[in-house]
Amino acid sequence: MRTYESIRTVDRATAFALLKQLSVGIAKLFAPHCEVVIHDFSDLERSIIHIDGNISGRKVGGGATDLLLAQARNGDTVRDFHNYQTFLPNGKNMKSCTMFLRDENGVAYGAFCINLDVGVFAGIHRILGDFLALDVGSEVSETLSDDIQRTIHSIFREAVNEIGAELPIMSKDDKIDLIARLDVKGAFQVKRAVPLIAEELGLSRSTIYNYLAEARVKTDADAQNGA
Fold first, then answer.
1. What are the tens digits of pLDDT across the range 104-158?
2. pLDDT tens for residues 178-204?
3. How far apart are CA 46 and CA 49, in angstroms?
4. In whole angstroms, what separates CA 130 from the centre of its chain?
5. What's the CATH architecture for 12-125?
6. Residue spans per domain, the chain
7. 3-state DSSP call for residue 225?
8. Could you tell me the CA-to-CA distances from 49 to 40, 58, 99 in Å, in that order?
């Protein structure tokens, strides 16, 4: 929780009036999931003097919270509290900010509190998490396109990334390795793959066929040797 230079006000009535005006705008902006509460510490048993967008069930004339009582008791009101977890008596989770109002001597005489009901968002987060979850360890991926040229290009870029080589600076061995990977990925089942890959590599079609033949020989040899 960060500490900011405190803003001190001499005219408490003006400060409370201004904050009441601000509370309306904040509560309406984040309605129906937000409430803004203003406390006057002159009577901690009845410290709530204003509420907008009530979601906690509290009323004007209600008492200070456990946090406010502890801070007032310990005199620890030189810092504000931002984006911390809070709870309703029914166990619902919320997040809150508490900003203290201080007089010319730096003594807190009230608090401006914003409380956000995040329960609905937490539920949405869980649902989205379930919805977006993938099988752990799955190596399957797919590009959904009915444009075969785009599909071949996608396979080509994937294979290039796998070998970690840079185009157009590739050795012959890199190119044969690339052709072998493209073959495994099924690229050469498409007749148009050869001219497309030849164009990508800046090679002739005959060179692609030669590299493909070499790649298949090497693949068969590796299989036989258990590589």
1. 888 889 999 999 988 777 778 788 888 878 777 666 666 666 788 888 988 998 8
2. 999 999 989 998 888 999 999 989 899
3. 8
4. 15
5. 2-Layer Sandwich (3.30)
6. 12-125, 148-220
7. coil
8. 7, 11, 15
